[in-house]
Design brief:
This protein is an alpha/beta fold. It has eleven helices and eight strands. It folds into two domains: about 110 residues, Rossmann fold (3-Layer(aba) Sandwich), CATH 3.40.50; about 150 residues, Rossmann fold (3-Layer(aba) Sandwich). About 35% of the residues lie in helices and about 10% in strands.
Length: about 350
């Protein structure tokens, strides 16, 4: 057997598509995302509805066991546990239920190499705009006082035309130099955590044609789930997220080894006070945008996202047409055709 570990439920959820597990062994009491929530999220993920799940936990009450099976466990084992019993449970699925391992895209060595590179990846520094934002664009600045417009100055008359000289023979036309062909890479993909659908439309309208892919997520759990499934280049966080969960979601995002090297953009509906400013700065937000989103600023931001991410890696992720089909209620290609095990 090949074993891949995760430090908590959130880390495991982020690694799910990369690991493609045939078994899942989950603790319950874990920080950031506990085992109950993790297994529920796994069961909602297309293609993992029948993946065998074993709970391995110190929670021993009947109510805990009942909750374990209700959330989707196949086996509930308590600590201290017998390793031979755990192994026997796994062998039952292999031999008696005829478990069929799913084909893997990455080897164990490749998965471990990705984990090491992500753990060592530095946090992306906040974006420094090429030009300072105007006061009306700065979400942290107080409302500027009305200013008296400067007096209008009459334009200068154009200079007199230069005297005509003898016409020189025209040079032979130059053959245009063919432009080098550039490989067309997929545009940046953004997961937008917001309960306001108008913000999704606003970002789509502000993005230049073909320059951005936008996926909406109505709450923090959905945002992290879609981040692991669709592998976006950045997370856009609506600071007025329903329930006031934006700071907690931002903390989860920057603490995840998978997401620490992805830029986080904060969008706010209003000017932010000192407390919010200090919090956003401590979280290391890549950029802060205030609504309404200006297309010029958003276009520059997308260019900077291209600079700090890895566009060539986008060709290996799920195609945008497939994302749209799943978001419309479809199932991923190849999911649900054959169960992992039959009994």
């Amino acid at each position: 057997m090949e074993v891949v570990t995760a430090v908590n439920g959130l880390d495991a959820l982020m690694k799910l598509e990369r690991i493609e597990p045939d078994f899942i062994i989950s603790d319950v009491m874990m920080p950031e995302m506990d085992g109950w929530e993790f297994v529920k999220r796994v069961r909602q993920r297309a293609g993992y509805e029948q993946t065998p799940v074993v709970y391995l936990t110190a929670l021993t009450s009947r109510d805990d066991m009942k909750k374990g099976y209700e959330t989707g466990a196949d086996v509930y084992l308590t600590k201290p546990y017998d390793p031979a019993r755990l192994k026997k449970n796994l062998e039952v699925f292999i031999h008696q239920f005829k478990l069929v391992p799913r084909p893997k895209r990455l080897s164990l060595e490749e998965i471990e190499a990705v984990d090491r590179s992500q753990a060592a990846a530095p946090r992306i520094a906040p974006r420094v705009p090429a030009q300072p934002l105007a006061e009306e664009d700065d979400p942290f600045q107080p409302t500027p006082a009305a200013k008296t417009p400067p007096p209008r100055v009459a334009p200068k008359p154009p200079p007199p035309p230069a005297p005509r000289t003898a016409v020189e023979p025209a040079a032979p036309p130059r053959r245009p130099t063919p432009k080098p062909k550039h490989e067309r890479l997929p545009p940046p993909r953004l997961v937008v955590a917001t309960g306001d659908r108008r913000l999704i439309a606003e970002l789509q309208e502000a993005a230049p044609a073909g320059r951005c892919e936008v996926v909406g997520a109505a709450n923090s759990a959905s945002a992290m789930d879609k981040t692991s499934l669709y592998d976006p280049d950045a997370l856009v966080l609506h600071w007025q997220l329903t329930g006031g969960h934006a700071p907690a979601l931002a903390q989860l995002f920057i603490e995840s080894p998978t997401c620490r090297a992805k830029p986080m953009i904060v969008v706010t509906d209003k000017r932010l006070g000192g407390g919010d400013r200090r919090m956003i700065q401590s979280l290391g937000a890549f950029e802060v945008l205030r609504r309404p989103i200006k297309p010029t600023l958003f276009g520059d931001l997308l260019s900077d996202i291209d600079q700090v991410t890895h566009p060539r890696e986008r060709v290996n992720r799920m195609a945008w047409e497939e994302v749209e089909r799943i978001e419309a209620g479809g199932q991923p290609n190849g999911s649900g055709e054959e169960p992992l095990w039959t009994g």
